[in-house]
Amino acid sequence: MCCKFDKELLYTFDDKTIQPLEKIFVEEHIKYCTDCQKDLKLITLINQNIKDELINIKFPDKLSTISQLVTENCIFEMEKTTIKSKIHNVIKTYSGINKAIKGSSVVYKHNPYNNFINNKIESTFNFIKKPIKHMVKNKLAEIGILKKLKLG
Predict the structure, then answer these.
(1) Burial environment of residue 129 by CB neighbours within 10 A (0 to 12, 13 to 18, 19 or more)
(2) Does residue 109 form part of some domain?
(3) Is there a single domain that holds both residue 69 and residue 108?
(4) Is residue 49 located within the same domain as residue 91?
(5) Which of 29, 35, 44, 52 is the most buried (most CB within 10 A)?
(6) Looking at the domain assignment, is residue 83 inside a domain?
(7) Residues 51 and 91 reside in one and the same domain
(8) pLDDT at residue 3 tops 80
(9) Are 40 and 3 in contact (CB under 8 A)?
């Protein structure tokens, strides 16, 4: 049997960004649902493997600063616009981030010497998409777009 439970809650539960009421709901659900227990174990394992692998990867200090500034600038600009523009900008931003992730993964895919590294990097890029989507969703909720869309 396939559980219809919102798997996004399992991700937020694992990374401890879940709301207190939702946490109680998830804890009660996973007591009885073996599908979600397995999914949560897999999510936890994937997150731990990514953390273990990322420890060994060194990124230039400026890359982090530039990424943060670009993200903050996009969010700042989004907050100044109309709802329609905000929705358009969020979609464009997420699409741009997705393209950047795919584009940067091309460099790593052409490493003929180590398939293990290629597979780990590919899975990391695929996994990074979920937190970005989660961040965009939270930011939209924070600036009130989702509430306005539900009312409209």
Answers:
(1) middle
(2) yes
(3) yes
(4) no
(5) 29
(6) yes
(7) no
(8) yes
(9) no
Same domain, 82 and 143: yes
Range 57-86 burial, b when 16+ CB lie within 10 A, else e: eeeeeeeeeeeeeeeeebbeebeeeeeeeb
Phi-psi region of 16 (alpha: psi -120 to 50; beta: other; left: phi over 0): left
Of 20, 29, 21, 24, which Cα lies nearest the Cα of 7? 29
Distance CA 95, CA 72 (A): 16
Domain count, the chain: 2
Closest CA to 124 of 61, 56, 60, 51: 51
User: What's the pTM?
Assistant: 0.39
In whole angstroms, what is the distance from residue 113 CA to residue 116 CA?
9
Q: Which domain holds residue 110?
A: 61-151
d(CA 83, CA 96): 20
User: Which of 7, 6, 44, 8 lies closest to 135 in space, CA to CA?
Assistant: 8
Q: Residue 73's pLDDT is what?
A: 81
